# Entry
Amino acid sequence: MLVRIHATFTEQFRHQGQSSSRHGRGFSQGKNSRRVTPFSCFKAMIISPKGVVLIKRATGQPVGPVIALKSSENFYRLPRLDQRVWRYMEYWKFESLIKDGALYFRRSDKLEDDMEGKYADANRNYTTGLWGRFSSAYRVNHDPKAFEQGALDFRYAVFVNCWHINRVESREMWERFGKSERSVVIVTTVRRLLKAVEANHVQPGKVIYASQAVPRPEWSHNAPFFFKNLQFMSEKEFRLIAHKPEEEPIYIDQTFGHSISVKGSEIIEMVKLHPEASPCFKEEIKTFLRNQNVKLAVSRSSLCR
# Structure
């Protein structure tokens, strides 16, 4: 069976219990090869889902009622399309973005937050209102342990690209992600970013910051990836999550990232240097861009002393 989200666009994912109990959340894992076979969790960006319905996989037809989804229960939230977003990085990552023409997504279990993609403590004892209505309508036996284990396994199949929402530079973000004075921040808008990745299976959204006392929504496997604990609030994160195509296996001990082809010049609005960057570094970047036939504005940090 599948759970289908009735929305402006459609999301599909395997319903818990149709695969093995350990790997029934969207992929299987070979015992010896440590290979994960992913599946596409969504066919297009989800913006305004309207409800949840259970369908039969063989026919694609609903087997019960649509459970209405209130606007407050939708965790897919976008900033304004003209909102500026910032990605702070070491210079070699910027070089790779321009040279390779690809946006890098890190596998979620490799990110620094150990709670990435996990359900909250509250999910062990409570369900959200929507999932309660769904379980009642379809007589689903909710198993918190299965959900928790499924989320742990699913982290292998989710890749994340992170941006900081702000109107201006952030000294804190430089300190966290600009490892040295040879670092840059690339600036774009939500509109430009979404346009660059629209041909791919990418889901955008603002991260919601909540304590472990707040249960994460159960109606989508993606939900835990759009929630983080309160101590990360200063990140003001806008993120893209992606899944590799179904025909591309994921090897747990080898596949740590996923790249999506983009043109850096189409995404990037401007490049700013680290506050402690030297004048020579600016010239190095400008020379590099000229050699790549890429025209981008490169400027000093507004936080320079």
Observations:
- The chain is about 20% helix and 25% strand.
- The longest helix spans residues 279-291.
- The first strand starts at residue 2 and ends at 6.
- Helices lie at 91-100, 129-138, 144-154, 171-177, 190-197, 264-267, 279-291.
